[in-house]
Design brief:
8-stranded mixed beta sheet; 14 helices; globular
């Protein structure tokens, strides 16, 4: 099958038998479901969302005060949302990469990098302390260029990363092919030495669940929250079959429709889609190289991210970030034949030597995109509720920082985290509909032109001036 001439029907055959579920969640190690909330409870702290942010917040709350009554409410299952559907890339950066951080927080980037690396090391240490087995692999990441203009800034980027203590180097074509044998890449940027890892994300979430339960946290699954309100000096969180009255609350809902209307101005839910291959044979592994098992990504704006699993499957995701008018979310948006077909075409263009390989899983999920591409924070209900949202697809590592910061805020603590302008400021809000939908469509077209030509064009220059962005 030649990818450039293969029909959509041929490409769809490659994933015709794929299970429509995240590979990470389709795991015999998945723990049994927990009971939903029924009736009324009282707690000191209630957390909405049992993904990474919510689970880290619950653990941190119990470690700070073992006597505190902590309840976590999850609409699906633990790790069911973004925490169980992502690529498993763990990065120390809190700002969606060093370059984005320098651009948006130039006076604070050194401190953000310090705290980010401290948070990353704390995450790795916590996994060991809690006995979480999640296929952790420490190692570098590599950014790959298909076009000369994409590689033009690699030398400068390597220099900037080295200034902040990373091991970084720009690679020529021969060195790039030594990393990955593919006909489409001509240069690369390798960044390592610290602050990067790969994990099995669902097993990380499940490990955090077990650690939280072991610390006395009460977790209720299949308990979607339908209302959030102030009740005197407390917060009342209602589900379909019960409610929790607590002194404090933390909102950790990713890109799902927010319980606070104000968040709708700042967060755009976009759908990201993924394919996972069957395990590669020894011959197939040898054909593509990739002996270093690095986490890989395209240097383009509409990029793919890809990595190897512990059993040598290739996870292949990204490129399309699909927004539905009005910020609609639905389970039916998770499977998109057109998007998965495009992903399959790009996969076989990148790996023609893997012709005939099958995809065993395909899925999609929501990314909580904000205009600065990184988590932001706030409080509501007279300071009784705090939130941490907007990770924009790079949250596996940053969620621990986000959880601890949200807990600082809801507890009224002044810490090195809450002192950051990064924490005290909000992203630029997105425009209302229909301008939001039209703007996102125009931005996607502009990024296509930028990737093809290397020129930003007037639309992207305008977005730069306004501080807006729509990337995944």
């Amino acid at each position: 099958m030649c990818p450039r001439t293969a029909s959509d029907q041929d490409l769809r055959r490659a994933f015709a038998d794929a299970r429509p579920v995240s590979f990470w969640l389709d795991d015999p190690a998945r723990p049994d479901a927990l009971d939903p909330l029924r009736g009324e409870l009282r707690a000191d702290l209630v957390i909405v969302g049992a993904g990474f942010t919510g689970l880290w917040a619950a653990l941190e709350a119990k470690e700070r005060d073992p006597g505190r009554e902590v309840v976590v409410l999850e609409g699906g299952r633990v790790g069911w949302g973004a925490s169980g559907r992502n690529g498993g890339f763990v990065a120390a950066s809190l700002t969606h990469g060093l370059e984005n951080g320098i651009h948006r927080f130039p006076d604070e980037i050194a401190e953000l990098e310090r705290q980010g690396l401290e948070n990353f090391d704390g995450l790795v240490a916590a996994m060991e302390r809690y006995g979480i087995s999640a296929d952790l692999e420490l190692g570098p990441v590599v950014l790959l260029a298909r076009r000369p203009h994409e590689a033009a800034w690699f030398e400068e980027a390597a220099s900037v990363h080295r200034r902040f203590g990373y091991e970084a180097e720009a690679l020529g074509e021969d060195e790039t092919q030594a990393v990955l044998r593919s006909p489409v890449y001509l240069a690369a940027l390798r960044v390592g030495g610290k602050g990067h890892a790969l994990v099995h994300p669902a097993r990380l979430a499940w490990g955090l669940r077990e650690a939280a339960l072991g610390h006395g946290v009460r977790i209720f699954e299949r308990s979607p929250v339908v209302a959030l309100e102030r009740e005197g000096a407390a917060v009342r969180v209602r589900t379909r079959e019960g409610s929790v009255r607590a002194e404090r609350a933390i909102l950790a809902t990713n890109g799902f429709p927010p319980l606070l209307r104000r968040l709708r101005a700042w967060v755009v839910p976009v759908y990201d889609h993924v394919l996972m291959t069957e395990p590669l044979s020894a011959e197939q592994r040898a054909a593509i190289g990739w002996a270093g098992r690095e986490g890989l990504s395209d240097a383009s704006n509409r990029f793919h991210y890809f990595r190897l699993s512990a059993d040598d499957r290739i996870l292949w995701g990204g490129y399309d970030a699909t927004y539905h008018f009005g910020g609609r979310t639905s389970r039916r948006f998770e499977l998109d034949d057109a998007v998965h077909t495009r992903l399959a075409r790009h996969f076989f263009e990148t790996f023609p030597q893997l012709e005939g390989i099958r995809f065993t899983h395909r899925w999609g999920g929501i990314i909580d995109t904000c205009s600065r591409y990184s988590v932001f924070f706030g409080t509501a209900l007279g300071g009784r509720l705090a939130y941490a949202v907007g990770y924009t697809g790079l949250g596996v590592g940053a969620t621990r920082f986000g959880a601890r910061t949200a807990l600082d805020l809801v507890d009224g603590l002044e810490t090195e985290r809450t002192a950051l302008r990064f924490v005290r400021t909000k992203p630029v809000p997105f425009p209302p509909e229909p301008l939001r939908y039209a703007g996102i469509r125009q931005t996607i077209r502009a990024y296509d032109r930028l990737d093809a030509t290397g020129r930003r064009g007037p639309w992207l220059w305008l977005l730069d001036r306004l501080g807006l962005g729509f990337q995944s």
